[in-house]
Amino acid sequence: MLGQFFHKPTSDESARVPPGQHLSKGFPVLTYGETPQISLEDWQLKVWGLATPKTFTWSDLMAMPKSNFTADFHCVTHWSKLEVKWTGIKVTDFMKFVEVNPQAIHVMEHCYGGYTTNVSMEDFLREDNFFAYEVFDEPLPPDHGGPLRLVVPHLYAWKSGKWINGLEFLDHEELGFWEQNGYHKRGEPWAEERYSD
Ligand SMILES: Nc1nc2c(c(=O)[nH]1)N[C@H]1C(S)=C(S)[C@@H](COP(=O)(O)O)O[C@H]1N2
Ligand SMILES: [Mo]
Q1: Which CATH number fits domain 39-191: 3.90.420.10, 3.50.50.60, 3.30.300.20, 3.30.70.360?
Q2: Which stretches of sequence are listed as region Disordered (predicted)?
């Protein structure tokens, strides 16, 4: 049965697939709870904590530099999808519009629906991270986090908050939803950081 949806990586692919992962043929949806529906008129992204508080509207985001990304996607439940094509805004481009206190060393992602997940500032500010609003040249479907999600390709995908609406900058580490429920604080797939000790 499982073979219908997953396959073992070919040798070309296998160098890109972290240990314990199988390739998914489709693009599964993995959500805890309901998919929130947010109209673009009502949509907001706020920053607070150790940053000058600011609220971004959809048009603020659309005025920011737009980039294309290709990234592999690794879910801790053992599926990976290679070469996902996204369009959005680089985190480092977005952060040019945010005034962060240098004491901020951690970030809590907040999402519509109440989901949270934590990343260190170092993991958050990587050049390959982005906020996505299109996937495979289509508007990001609500189930995959539309209108906007974060994508942090070098960590397990639970760190890629769907329907992101807040970034809280912190001078200490706090744990998000899955991290409070036994998952690893960082979640690096090549080191198989799945669960906390
Ligand atoms: N807001 C929110 N973001 C979330 C989740 C969630 O339940 N809620 N699930 C996470 C998990 S465990 C994974 S694997 C990916 C799945 O993204 P996808 O549904 O687009 O495949 O989103 C992550 N981001
Ligand atoms: Mo996941």
Answers
A1: 3.90.420.10
A2: 1-22
